[in-house]
Request: fold
Amino acid sequence: LYQNGAAAPSAFAPKFEDYQAVYNEIASRLEEKEDYDDGSYGPVLVRLAWHASGTYDKETGTGGSNGATMRFAPESEHGANAGLKVARDFLEPVKAKFPWITYSDLWILAGVCAIQEMLGPAIPYRPGRSDRDVSACTPDGRLPDAAQAQDHLRNIFYRMGFNDQEIVALAGAHALGRCHSNRSGYEGPWTFSPTVLTNDFFKLLTEEKWQWKKWNGPKQYEDKKTKTLMMLPADMALVQDKKFNEWVKKYAADNDLFFKDFSAVIVKLFELGVPFKEGQERWVFKTSA
Ligand code: ZEM
Reply:
C-alpha cells in the first residue's frame, strides 16, 4: 500500500478541541459520580496530579509528571500515595475513550479540570508528557511528611524549585478534600466546603483556635469550636514560621491574590521536568458551568 517510500498516514495529532473533549468527559464523570466522599472525586484527582508532579528533583531532573510512573510498584505502594488508586481507576474509562492521550497528560489534565470544576481559578494547560516505564519510578521519601514542620517543608519544596511564597500558595489546596484514616492515618476535612476551592484554609488557620485532637491516631489538630475540622502538623507550621505566616495572612485576607498565585504556582508544579515541544502554547479549557 505505501510503496516507493511513501509515508504512512501520520499519527493522530490532537488539537485543543481534542483535549477539551477529554476535559468535558472528566467533568461529566465528576458530576455523575457524586456519591463519593464529600460528593466529589475532585479533591483526590488534585492529589493524584500533585503526587505525580511533586516527586521532581531539580538537581537530577528526575521525577515530575512526565512519566506517570505511579502506575507501577514500587511508586504506587509508597505510603504517601495510599488511596490514589481510587483516582487512577476513576480515569481509566477516560483513557479507554481517548486512547491517544498519555496517562501523564491525562492525570494533569484531570487535576486542572478538578480545580476549575470546583470553582477554582483558570489553570492554563499544555500537553507534552510521555509515559515512561517502571525504571523511571522515583525513590520513596520525595513527598512531604505531614508530621513534620517548616525545615522539612523547605527541604522538600526547595528541591522542586519553589520558594516560601509558592509553598504557602500551594498548601492552600488543603481547602479541598479530607484526610482518610485508612490512607494517611489522619482524619477529617480542613474546611466546611471541601469540594469548592476558596482561601478558607488560610482563613481558618488564622481565625480559629486549634488544639491537639485527643485520639489514638497520629498527632493532628482540631478546631476548638466545632471539633470537626483538622490541621496537620505541617499545616500548622505555616503559621508558626514567621516568613510563611506573612503569606498565610495575605492569602487569608485576599481570595483574588490567592487565586492568582495558586494558578501560577500549580502551573509551575504540573510542568516540572516536562520536555514540552517548542512552541506548544498553553490553553485554558472551558468549564462545564
Ligand atoms: Zn496534601 N495531603 N499535603 N497537598 N492534599 C492530604 C490530602 C490532600 C500534605 C499531606 O501530608 C496530605 C499539598 C501539600 C501537602 C491535597 C493537595 C495538596 C493528606 C490526606 C495528607 C496527609 C491524605 C488522605 O488521607 O487521603 C503535606 C504534608 C503537604 C505539604 C505542604 C499540595 C501542594 C497539594 C496540591 C497542590 C488534596 C487535594 C488532598 C485531599 C485528597 C482527598 O482525597 O480528599
Summary: Strands lie at 178-179, 188-189, 210-212, 221-223, 230-231. The longest strand covers residues 210-212. The CA atoms of residues 56 and 213 lie 33 Å apart. The mean pLDDT is 96.
